[in-house]
Structure formats: C-alpha cells, structure tokens
Amino acid sequence: xxxxxxxxxxxxxxxxxxxxxxxxxxxxxxxxxxxxxxxxxxxxxxxxxxxxxxxxxxxxxxxxxxxxxxxxxxxxxxxxxxxxxxxxxxxxxxxxxxxxxxxxxxxxxxxxxxxxxx
Amino acid sequence: xxxxxxxxxxxxxxxxxxxxxxxxxxxxxxxxxxxxxxxxxxxxxxxxxxxxxxxxxxxxxxxxxxxxxxxxxxxxxxxxxxxxxxxxxxxxxxxxxxxxxxxxxxxxx
Lengths: 118, 109
Hints:
With 118 residues, chain A is mainly β. Chain A is built from no helices and 12 strands. The model of chain A has no long low-confidence stretch (mean pLDDT 91). In chain B, strand 3 (31-37) and strand 4 (44-49) form a beta hairpin. Classes of the chains: A mainly beta (118), B mainly beta (109). The interface between A and B is medium-sized, with 33 and 28 residues.
C-alpha cells in the first residue's frame, strides 16, 4: 500500500517563526499536494507539485511556499508563521493523470500535522 | 475557484440508507471523487466517477450526472463505523482536487 508520512503529528510554533512541514511518500507518485483543513471550510489546496522542482499555487498560497527537490519528498514552508495559520495540514500524493478523464487516480493522504501558532 | 455544495449533517439509524448530494462547477471538470474521513483520521478514497452513471463498491455507490453537474454518494445498510465526514471532490487538470465542505454522517443504534 502507498504510504504517505508526515514528519510531525503535532507542532506548536511561535508567531514569526519559519516552519517546515515535511511529507514523504514511498510509491513513486508524481503528484503531491498540501491542503489545510479547518472546521466548516473543508480541505483547501495550498500548493501542489506534479514533478520534481515543479510547483503550482493552489487556492490559498499566501504565506506559504513549497519545495520538491526529490520525487518522494514535498515540503511546506510557512515563511513567518501567524496565528491564522493554526490548522490541520494534510499532505497527499497520487499518480500523474495526464489530464485525461479516465482512471481514478485517488489520493493517499498522510495522517496530518496539527499546527498551533501562538 | 470551484464551488462544491454539500449539506452539512445527517443522522440515521443502523441499517438505513443515506444519500449525500454534491453539485459542482463544470469548467475544466474531469470527474467527481468521494472521500471518507473519521474524526482525527486522514481522508480515505472511496470512489470516482468520470462518466455518467452509477459505480458500486460494496455498500457504497456513487452516481454522476454531468449534464446536471450533480453527483451523490449512497451509503446502504449503514453501520456504526460509517459515522464519519464525507467529502466530494471535483477533479481538474493535473489530478488537482477541489473538495467540498463535507457532510457529517452520524449513525445511531
């Protein structure tokens, strides 16, 4: 089975700190994604990557950046943490779809990192 | 961005049937996925519809009507372990998913 591992389950950081959230997948998936999940708002896409060193902004990229130096690892960076970035962060991976309508290309999610910024 | 509309909460007894509806925007649409998330857990993939019609996977079925920009997830023979949140997700280019706000299903004895 595909496994997506997020380095920390819980994190507490201070306002203004630079925060790194790490995600590693072990099934050679091309696509990797970072979402945040907040009550009543569902999952919102921050950034995604469909290849090494490739990245695209999602719906809420402000205040975040990403790094994908190796295929298996996708890092989310909070440049200067703020209290409104307190959230559950979920990493996911999938096969690359090529844009076609066929196939299911379901996501496999990590267990999440609950980040609290104080 | 995309807009995925889902009702918020449903309570049902064990053995019942629940239908969770989802409407979506059509621009750049490739298909509709469904995910289940238990409290404190990660979302897990349930099903995907690219074409019109019904896909059945055990007690769960998912339906898509592209002409109506509408889909639903049908949970049959509800069990206590089905208490969870259910999300529809619209698939776009590069397998990018836009998730709805989710629907919490509470199963009672």
